[in-house]
Prior knowledge:
alpha/beta, Spore Coat Polysaccharide Biosynthesis Protein SpsA, Chain A, ten-stranded mixed β-sheet, two-stranded antiparallel sheet, 14 strands
Amino acid sequence: MKTAIVILNWNGQKLLEQFLPSIVNFSAEHADIYVADNASTDTSIAFVKEYYPSVKIVKNTKNGGYDKGYNDALQHINADVYCLINSDIEVTENWIPPVLDVFNAEKNTAIVQPKILDFKDKTSFEYAGAGGGFVDLYGYPYCRGRIFNELEKDNGQFNDVSDIFWASGACLFIRSEVYHQLGGFDEDYFAHQEEIDLCWRTQNEGYRIKYTGTSTVYHVGGATLQETNPHKTYLNFRNSLLNVVKNVPKKWFLFVVFSRLILDGVAGVKFALELRPIHTWAIVKAHFSFYQHFFKFLKKRKALQKKASYNLHTSVVWQYFILGRRRFKDLK
Length: 332
């Protein structure tokens, strides 16, 4: 199975200096390695050419964010499986074979995510993906090992191979045929939660998403946008709403949309009470942008099948904030 590891880069020389060595050392035997450059203005590409001549480079003509960056670059990469990986991830020895084993054993599996631990605390799961993602009744994403900002320690509880609803864009493997069949990422997202949309559409086509806990990577997280950055708040709230409009089944559509608008308002009040009004304003801006995109996404919705079954029995907000359930195994 021909595999291509594709690292999206934008002015990220320091990250490449730190993390590219592990990818080259532990991946070259199993995959071709590419840096997809989003029109960087630093010397990161010169660095790669000088110190890692075996790494192939694909140059995009503009910085179109995560979504367009990958869509443009993957047109020029020939492989059976793409590994889309952030430039702030350290991989481990023999991390690729367990993933390919899943693809080889399960022909209907289109996307696989490894275990994602925190680079800064390697005993804990990392926010972006952890042990594989799910979506609750209201479209809120959560993970095995991470609910909102609560991170679990890795005690081997997710060392399995399991069905999940979404795989993290920080590190996911996808069959190239499926990626192109779906038209890649939706570029209206720009960045954040586009992988949830991609996974949702993948399942609507009848494919499965898997997690394998026998493959491990370590993610810094926030290397592009820190968790405290209001633009990240803006993108997460807006894009989560766009996911709801685009993908939630018809019988739940109005209920989920209106519920989300109310719950987001509560989140805005919470930020204000915490003396973080800049994040309240980010949610307000996210909603204005959502309204601007609403009818465009309704049209996209009509063109999609909506078969994927997300978790209609769980409200993560209720269980986390009201019932105090902080770990994945405690969710009912």
